[in-house]
Amino acid sequence: MLKIFLIAFFLSKIYQTIERPLVIGHRGSAYLPELTLETQSMGHALHSDMIEIDVCLSRDNQLLVVHDLYLNAVSNVGNLYPNRNRSDGYHYVIDFDLAELRRLTIHERTIPFTNTQVYPSRFPSSSSIPFSLSTLNETLELLLGLRRSTNQQYQLLIEIKNPEYHSQYNRSISEILLSTLAAYNLTELTDPIVIQTFHIEELIHIRKNHGSRLRLVALLTWNWLNESSSDYDFYRSEQGLQNLSWIVQGIAPNMELLVNFDSNGSIIDMTNLTSLAHKYQLAVYPWTFRYDTYKGNFKELIDFFHRKVQVDGFITSQPDLVIKLLEQTTTNAMGELPGISMLLYGLIFVIYLLMKMNTSI
């Protein structure tokens, strides 16, 4: 039996070197306006292993799939509701009912109050195509519908946007999210749902107080960005990661927390964050890999994070390109191992013979 175990262990290690990391479509994909059902569909069609979305609450407690707490960067809200902005000029999602939000037209991201497109080479923000916001219910219906029609598994990485902000309005966005997922019988570790947020204490609340068995991921960044009141400096430490390992299955750090870059975007070296996370069995999914904004060689960037940093997944706006680059890397890696296909078949055959011998004895 010891021989069988050793061979099986060796075989699993070979597979680990070949298997590519997960590819997670950031806000769907970069090819259509972010987070719309159309770009989510495209992200699935591009064979993303998972689609990353964000959810905010409307005034009538509906979960909207939208990245910002306000609407000005991605919609015509200023034209449609000119007198509904707050003193800072922004129109906030939580100030509108779902019926009102349904009237909005969604476009490619622009700098608020200007017509300047944030990513100039992407889908034109001036397009007259009437894209619209989707609710989480619609996104879940899309996920489950595609699963049925294609007989393939699709997954969602759902980011809860700023739970502390929502709590100021006496709303528990996490509780509403969990209730919505439960209505679709999505409650277990094996279900195609992962929840993440920058507010680490909210994840602890979800696990301990709500007793959720869904997979959880902790978003990590720098404290000075004020994404939440969580102390990211602590959660990036070994003690912090060890504490997290009792609550979450993975971390999603800003890529600059894993690799040091120079001013030109070239890689200098890597930090110890990935190895520390792996020490406590935490998966690592850095963000955000954007081909259209990266200054250096994108292929070398993906290869470094894959082969050297050994991340478990990539959150990327161009999932198709990252999949292609990873498959090239995997093919090259297989080429570096002589006769790997014959070796794998041979090992499987040996295990089979040993098991038969063990059974007969």
Describe this protein's structure.
- By secondary structure, the protein is α/β, with parallel strands linked by helices.
- It has helices spanning 2-18, 37-45, 77-80, 98-101, 136-150, 163-167, 173-183, 200-208, 232-235, 238-244, 273-279, 298-309, 319-335, 340-360, and strands at residues 22-26, 50-57, 63-65, 134-135, 156-160, 193-197, 215-220, 250-253, 259-261, 267-270, 283-284, 313-316.
- It has one domain: TIM Barrel (Alpha-Beta Barrel).
- Helices cover 39% and strands 14% of the residues.
- α1 runs antiparallel to α14 and α12 (298-309) crosses α13.
- The longest helix has 21 residues, at 340-360.
Compile the SSE list and pairings:
Layout: H1 2-18, E1 22-26, H2 37-45, E2 50-57, E3 63-65, H3 77-80, H4 98-101, E4 134-135, H5 136-150, E5 156-160, H6 163-167, H7 173-183, E6 193-197, H8 200-208, E7 215-220, H9 232-235, H10 238-244, E8 250-253, E9 259-261, E10 267-270, H11 273-279, E11 283-284, H12 298-309, E12 313-316, H13 319-335, H14 340-360
Parallel strand pairs: 1-2, 1-12, 2-5, 5-6, 6-7, 7-8, 8-11
Antiparallel strand pairs: 2-3, 3-4, 9-10
